[in-house]
């Protein structure tokens, strides 16, 4: 029979095995556990003390029917994860939030909440750093390097400047920013930041960044627009040549279910009205998309789009009236 000892990794693996055994059935005697672990009863007692030190409520009772028992406790015990494992788990959950699988974003949020509850204080801070630096406005997004997400999340939380290479037209330029939030759309991850070279707010696609690194300069937070709203408006309208705004006679929830979050911003007016803000290379393209929603609507901006509505209506009426009626075909 092996005795207590071995390196630290062996001790950790043995304690984890002991924890697993205690979770399998209500009571174990010391000799039973010693036999399963291949150690002495004295080593079992030491490993039980290690679990108690970590916060696991392991009870011991004497006499017939006595032994070691894992108690419920009012608080969840610390989770046995080292720093890298905890951070990797948090990043993976965040990277998967809002994915293509229905309900995955809610499940990831619940898992992050549970992870926050069971981690030791030292690691709990790291997970909260991530969760507080991420926002979302919509599933199935372009994958990004988790280490880049982690670097940017830390920079957002620690309020330190960040630098990265980013394509601009036909060349790649170094950008220096004050990072504020990571924002997840239905397709991509974005960084919402204050661009120091352009002295204005910008959003950057994380999948386009290279050579991402934090800087040593800290910054004081500025008054900032809402990160998720800013990024969504940029993705849905500002990046396009033309922008249009409509008053749609339907609830915001109904219209949001018809339009991807990256295609338009939907703002609630009341229970039966909403505003739709969208952009495209052609105003006719935006107009057709709103027509196909199937709701009554009014053009708010730009004014010239009202004339395009009349022209489109005339073309459709003409198309419907043109030609001879098509006779029914008998089979």
UniProtKB/TrEMBL annotation:
Entry-linked Pfam families: HTH_11, WCX, WYL
Domain HTH deoR-type: 11-66
Alphabetized UniProt keyword annotations: DNA-binding, Transcription, Transcription regulation
InterPro entries in UniProt: CBASS_pafABC_assoc_protein (IPR051534), DeoR_HTH (IPR001034), HTH_11 (IPR013196), PafC-like (IPR028349), Tscrpt_reg_HTH_DeoR_CS (IPR018356), WCX_dom (IPR057727), WH-like_DNA-bd_sf (IPR036388), WH_DNA-bd_sf (IPR036390)
Domain of life: Bacteria
Record field: transmembrane: none
UniProt-listed SUPFAM superfamilies: Winged helix' DNA-binding domain
PANTHER family: PROTEIN PAFB, PTHR34580
Record protein name field: YafY family transcriptional regulator
């Amino acid at each position: 029979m092996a005795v207590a000892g071995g390196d630290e990794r062996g001790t950790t693996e043995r304690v984890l095995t002991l924890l697993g055994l205690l979770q399998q059935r209500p009571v174990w005697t010391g000799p039973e556990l010693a036999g399963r672990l291949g150690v002495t009863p004295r080593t079992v007692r030491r490993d039980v003390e290690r679990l108690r030190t970590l916060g696991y409520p392991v009870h011991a009772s004497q006499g017939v029917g006595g032994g070691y028992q894992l108690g419920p406790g009012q608080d969840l015990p610390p989770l046995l994860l080292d720093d890298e494992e905890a951070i990797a788990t948090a990043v993976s959950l965040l990277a998967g939030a809002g994915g293509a699988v229905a309900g995955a974003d809610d499940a990831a949020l619940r898992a992050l909440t549970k992870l926050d509850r069971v981690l030791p204080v030292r690691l709990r801070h790291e997970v909260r750093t991530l969760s507080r630096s991420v926002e979302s406005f919509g599933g199935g997004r372009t994958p990004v390097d988790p280490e880049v997400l982690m670097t940017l999340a830390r920079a957002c939380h620690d309020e330190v400047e960040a630098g990265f290479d980013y394509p601009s037209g036909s060349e790649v330029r170094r950008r220096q920013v004050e990072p504020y939030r990571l924002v997840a759309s239905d397709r991509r991850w974005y960084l919402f930041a204050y661009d120091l070279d352009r002295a204005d707010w910008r959003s950057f696609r994380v999948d386009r960044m290279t050579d991402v690194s934090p800087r040593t300069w800290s910054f004081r937070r500025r008054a900032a627009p809402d990160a998720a709203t800013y990024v969504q408006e940029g993705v849905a309208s500002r990046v396009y040549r033309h922008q249009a705004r409509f008053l749609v006679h339907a609830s915001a929830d109904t219209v949001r279910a018809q339009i991807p979050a990256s295609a338009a911003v939907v703002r609630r007016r009341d229970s039966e009205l909403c505003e739709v803000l969208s952009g495209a290379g052609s105003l006719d393209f935006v107009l057709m998309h709103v027509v196909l929603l199937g709701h009554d609507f009014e053009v708010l901006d730009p004014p010239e789009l009202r004339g395009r509505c009349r022209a489109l209506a005339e073309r459709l009426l003409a198309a419907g009236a043109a030609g001879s009626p098509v006779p029914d075909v008998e089979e």
